[in-house]
Amino acid sequence: MAELWRGAPAAEALSLRASAQAEELRAAGITPTLAIVRVGERAEDLSYERGAVRRCEGTGVAVERFVLAQDAAQEELTDLLRRINGDRRIHGCLLLRPLPRQMDEKAVCAVLAPEKDIDGITPGSLAGVFTGSGAGFPPCTAQACMELLAHYGFDPAGKRAVVVGRSLVVGRPAAMLLMGQNATVTICHTKTANLAEECRRGDILLAAAGQPELIKAEHVRPGAVVLDVGIHSVDGKLTGDVESAAAEPVAGAITPVPGGVGAVTTCVLALHVIQAARRQNGLET
């Protein structure tokens, strides 16, 4: 039976690190500050916002919330982002997505200054992830996967990693981060031929396809580490991209849903805000 890699212990360790770094900044007269921008009242956005506020404020990161109506014009949102770009008190910005249909999400994201993009949504931040330059910040969920591997002492170097999912939110950035730690990475998706066969090659299997219980026992290499990024409500029950009951007897370690990768994501968010504050005040490159 697989070892359960719960997010709470990793989150606690990251929160302690964030608190110590935030205290150092406050002692220097700098209050690390996050702007959360939300359009509308989607339940998923409200839930993530509450978690982000709770985590940030618990680690010494101040939060300012900006809320626009669901039917707001795109120009209203881009004007707000430009004001945030120019506000030196604000070090990071979290734009909750997806945006309403009347908005061009790609164009909106491009307005945010890369140095304040703490969730990897701008072309500048993603370029930093894909080139390995260290500029900008990777998406928080992709980074949370790496933090879990580190917390549980699993070194990706020399290992085969299979990422199921090709979005710019998790799949592709996570693949680049794994490659940056010297894993040999294969990216698959729901249209991959012989998906189970490809997945079984992985010492690490990261499921981020956005499809409930896509990954079955036959997809898992015996002893593999399975990182389940998905979260879905099916018949009133939360489940991930992995059919956990089937995969657990095969895997060596697996993250639960809920209580796995998601529990670490807001800690990464707080750390990114603190790092942004340090960079913007000349305390690190």
Folded structure, characterized:
41% of the residues lie in helices and 16% in strands. It is α/β, with parallel strands linked by helices. It folds into 2 domains: 29-112, Rossmann fold, CATH 3.40.50; 140-262, NAD(P)-binding Rossmann-like Domain (Rossmann fold). A 6-stranded parallel sheet has the order 1-11-8-7-5-6. Strands 3-2-4 form a 3-stranded parallel sheet, sandwiched between helices. Strands 9-10 form a two-stranded antiparallel ribbon. Strand 5, helix 7 (171-180) and strand 6 (184-188) form a beta-alpha-beta unit. The protein is globular. It starts with a strand and ends in a 5-residue tail after the last helix.
The proportion of strand residues reads: 15-25%
What is the residue-mean pLDDT, rounded to a whole number? Answer: 96
- Largest sheet, strands/sense/barrel: 6 strands, parallel
Secondary-structure element pattern, one letter each: EHEHEHEHHHEHEHEEEEHEH
What is the count of distinct domains? 2
Question: What is the CATH domain class of the largest domain?
Answer: Alpha Beta
Question: How many β-strand runs?
Answer: 11
Number of helical regions: 10
Rg, alpha carbons: 19 Å
Oligomer: single chain
Distance between the termini: 44 Å
Describe this protein with a few key phrases.
10 helices; 2 domains; 285 residues; Rossmann fold; 41% helix; single chain; six-stranded parallel sheet; alpha/beta; globular
